[in-house]
Design a protein that fits this description.
Blueprint lengths: L3 H6 L3 E6 L5 H14 L6 E4 L8 H15 L3 E6 L5 H13 L4 E5 L20 H11 L3 E6 L10 H14 L3 E6 L3 H13 L6 E5 L5 H11 L5 H9 L4 H21 L4 E5 L4 H15 L9
Parallel strand pairs: 1-2, 1-8, 2-3, 3-4, 4-5, 5-6, 6-7, 7-8
Helix pairs in contact: 2-3, 5-6, 10-11
Length: 298
């Protein structure tokens, strides 16, 4: 099943993103945690790719576990970084043989130890080229990334949206945004894209701030603005992890409420493998999506 079918059938879709640990012990622990995540019945999971494609085997293993052992639809991330076109084809074949039907197609972060994206020999320049290649290879459902405040490598927001339209034209069926902390940026971006003719689902990526230091680092790395009231509250309690975590949860709960009022088509929860995050936000998101998922993996 392509995930776009969920977005067509439901007014709102609840999804959770996880990352595959590097060790076998970590993988086993996450599989147990996913059993608890699944108690909140997300409509699908997505599994990230490591920096420079370092965890691609674990991405495949975890996606296959979700697809076959949990019976939940899954989207595996795939990046251009460090892979030739032939290597990408091999990954696609392996995913298809495991009945993993959905991909998040990304350019990907620079290889570890480098600051900028380096074109792999015989590889793809960007997500648009990757999406075109996936379309030619096999029948995958394809998601792509969007950046409400513009991509950190591209300060020209108009040009960044133009690039996004290119990804849609290449075959991206829905867009999941990078996290944002101020709904205004998402709503302006969404409305502008609609005015420009984008007619695919635009899904809001939500990441609960955990503390001031981590939030500041992530925001600078991703080019995301921190609302003044949130920054002041996190700074005030930077030495109190419990209070900081609560501040973050309250902030994203308000974000979610505002997005639901605005008719957002889905929330993609960047859980960072954290059970507390899913416990806190899962019930509200499940309620918004309906009492049970519309579809199983089969």
């Amino acid at each position: 099943m392509h995930l776009i079918e969920l977005y067509k059938k439901q007014n709102f879709v609840f999804s959770i993103e996880i990352f595959p640990p590097k060790t076998e012990k970590g993988m086993d622990k996450l599989k147990m945690t996913l059993e608890k995540f699944n108690g909140y019945t997300p409509d699908y999971f997505s599994v990230t790719y490591g920096a420079g494609g370092t965890s691609r085997a674990n991405t495949h293993e975890m996606a296959a576990h979700i697809r076959h052992d949990l019976g939940v639809p899954v989207m595996a991330h795939l990046t251009c970084v460090s892979h030739s076109a032939k290597e990408i084809d091999d990954v696609l074949t392996k995913l298809k043989n495991s009945n993993i039907e959905n991909l998040m197609a990304l350019r990907g972060d620079p290889t570890l130890g480098t600051e900028h994206f380096i074109l792999p020999e015989g590889g793809y320049h960007n997500a648009g080229e990757l999406i075109s290649a996936v379309r030619k290879h096999s029948d995958f459902g394809i998601g792509a990334a969007g950046y409400p405040e513009g991509h950190v490598d591209n300060p020209d927001k108009d040009d960044d949206r133009k690039h996004l339209h290119g990804k849609i034209a290449a075959g991206a069926e829905f867009i999941v945004t990078q996290f944002f902390l101020d709904n205004t940026y998402f709503l302006r971006w969404r409305d502008k894209l609609r005015e420009e003719g984008a007619n695919v689902p635009l899904v809001a990526g939500i990441l609960p701030p955990s503390n001031w230091k981590a939030t500041k680092r992530m925001s600078e790395m991703c080019g995301v603005s921190i609302p003044q009231d949130l920054a002041e509250a996190l700074l005030k309690h930077e030495n109190d992890p419990v209070a900081s975590k609560e501040i973050g949860f309250v902030h994203v709960e308000k974000q979610i409420e505002g997005l639901l009022r605005e008719g957002v088509e889905g929330v993609h929860l960047y859980a960072l493998n954290n059970l507390d995050t899913v416990k806190r936000l899962g019930p509200k998101l499940r309620e918004a999506a309906g009492t049970s998922p519309a579809c199983s993996a089969d």
